[in-house]
Amino acid sequence: MMHGGGFGGGMGGGSMGGGGMGRMGRRLGMDDEGELGSVYNHRVVTRLLSYVLPHKGLAIMSLLTMLVTTFTIVAQPWIIKLAIDELVDTGEQVNAGEQATVGALAFVMVLFAVNMGVRFVSNYMYQVSLARVSQGVLYSLRTRIFGHLQRLSPSFYDRNEVGRIMSRGQNDVNQLQEFLNLVVSSLADVLSLGGIVIALFLLDVQLALITLTVIPVLIGIMLIWQKIAWGTFMRVRQAISVVNANLQENISGIRVVQSLNREETNMERFDEVNNGHLEANLHASRLSAALMPTVEILTAIAIGLVVIFGGRQAINGTMEVSVIVAFVLYVQRFFDPIRNLTMQYTQFQRAMTSGVRIFGLLDTPVEVKDKEDAVDLPPVKGAITLEGIRFHYVPEIEVVKGIDLTIQPGETVAFVGQTGAGKTTLVALLNRFYDVTEGRITIDGYDIRDVTQDSLARQTAM
Ligand SMILES: Nc1ncnc2c1ncn2[C@@H]1O[C@H](COP(=O)(O)OP(=O)(O)OP(=O)(O)O)[C@@H](O)[C@H]1O
Ligand SMILES: [Mg+2]
Description:
With 462 residues, this protein is α+β, with helices and mostly antiparallel strands. The chain has helices at residues 18-28, 42-52, 56-95, 103-151, 154-159, 162-203, 205-211, 214-252, 254-259, 263-316, 321-363, 423-430, 453-459; strands at 384-394, 397-407, 438-443, 446-447. It has two domains: 12-16 and 371-459, Rossmann fold (3-Layer(aba) Sandwich), CATH 3.40.50.300; 31-363, ABC transporter transmembrane region fold (Up-down Bundle), CATH 1.20.1560.10. Strands 2-1-3-4 form a four-stranded antiparallel sheet, with helices on one face. It binds adenosine-5'-triphosphate and magnesium ion.
């Protein structure tokens, strides 16, 4: 029945242990979770932009409305300052026994209300348009990934576990979608920082310089925090990927688990990795929690500086009270963007890493594909020849070692052999799930690599 070199034993007797394959897949397949790359990757960004391009209008709208929103936020303390100025003026007029006019004050009040109104509308439009863009990007990324996964050859699935591929389609896509929000909100943070600094200097140069002395301290703290946080957040990512891998392995191997009474042992093992995840997360939340009070203390110090130095000048009559109030309000708004930017740094890195993975997946070539000049296989009569075919899944471990075989139309052929001998492999090769590494397979004289996969699949079955 079987001519030629016969079948290779493959991996030692050929037990196709799921675990063994899994480890192999991990080594050859996609890179590990949990790693954090650079914060900016040009290729990822340009690729991502090509997904944003169809939503150009909305993207521009979200940027513009973001600008307006940021402006209204920065303007608010200034309007309050104007109101206080007017109040003080009015008070002085009353004290001097003059006829007090509240027209200007009313105008400032209207300005305040208009500012709030504009902010409401622009913020709403900003959020909605940004969500539309990023959801649109998410949508097309998912569609592309699904389409590509359907075309990829079985060899890809040999190398990559389902759990990992799922994680590409879910987590990584979400991360990458977050990236757009991050870009715009970081831009908003930078702009409002700039706006506040300008406002401070416009109000009082000396007081601005005094207040901003806390900035180097803050930046120092942020840098140190960032360094510690990097490792911690990375551990969180790794921990969750270990939990997921464990979960996936247990679900897909549930028959083996139950038939070998492994429930208890596996439970213990899962408990271990789950606990590792818990610890990593608790550590991360402690770290995040520590940042808040630190920033708050620095805010308090900055406000204290304003009150002490500004207050003294106010008593001397060289500074308006309204300036001090505006300063305090600005200082309170000053630290939020800085804290946001610090926290967003890690997210940026994560999004970039996800981007590298997703576009890596989308760029994975389809190994078995139609030739340019592939023809449709005409209705088959059933003459099959294997001409000296060789095949290996993993380099160096040859599974099919040179088989010659001719099957006449209508003839029935049975492959018999030990487990792992290569029976399934041979049928997979006939269906062209994989291409032979040497030799050729013909059906009715057509090399199966010269016909379209479509026409072959319609007339073969596995
Ligand atoms: N996707 C794969 N990646 C790597 N090696 C593989 C893969 N599939 C099979 N092998 C290896 O190729 C050899 C042949 O496997 P194959 O499944 O063709 O055997 P089989 O004869 O169908 O066995 P069984 O009787 O158990 O179904 C085995 O050594 C197996 O470990
Ligand atoms: Mg088999």
